């Protein structure tokens, strides 16, 4: 996995609560360590719906999210409050949009990725929809919304999304979220060990076996050189 200096590569699915935790912790660590403007996040798609050949079910997220929330309570969470029919049936369009924003800058893609996660987990917005994606983009300070709309409409970033999926099917990227530093250090859900058991319910029971938040700090420092 080649990662440029001063960059962290983040492979994730927008619909994965664990990746919401990791991305929030990355932003928080970069700010606390005074490395904003020095370390960038390069977002790549780990599209679970393509691996599973089905949408990520809300019932699954409803089981994972309350446990994930304990790891990053300030990341913005609320139970889904919109109609059931508004739950995103696909997250490929917003993940494509993050790649399209990357054509503007990594800063733009970072901002859009974070805004889309907030919209899904904290505001119950259907981020599958084009107009919602553009609304979220307009709420950032750095995304050129007109350029993003043009890129979505002509599909120029779709090949990047599918190229990510091709890489994600290999052996290097193990799941959502998997984080890579320039020196080769990497970890899936850095510092977090997730427990699961089949308790007879449809999606099983999750818990946190171990949590070492300093693992994220270490990766950010490594990216800074």
Write a structural description:
This protein has helices spanning 17-32, 48-52, 58-69, 92-102, 106-123, 130-138, 145-154, 158-168, 214-224; strands at 7-12, 40-45, 178-180, 186-188, 192-197, 205-211. 39% of the residues are buried. A hairpin with a 5-residue loop joins strand 3 (178-180) and strand 4 (186-188). The protein is an alpha+beta fold and 225 residues long. It is built from nine helices and six strands. The two termini are 17 Å apart. The strands form two sheets. The chain has a four-stranded mixed β-sheet with strand order 2-1-3-4. It has a two-stranded antiparallel sheet with strand order 5-6.
Please give a quick description of this structure:
The chain is an alpha+beta fold and 225 residues long.
Write the SSE topology.
Blueprint: E1 7-12, H1 17-32, E2 40-45, H2 48-52, H3 58-69, H4 92-102, H5 106-123, H6 130-138, H7 145-154, H8 158-168, E3 178-180, E4 186-188, E5 192-197, E6 205-211, H9 214-224
Parallel strand pairs: 1-2
Antiparallel strand pairs: 1-3, 3-4, 5-6
Helix pairs in contact: 1-3, 1-9, 4-5, 4-7, 6-7
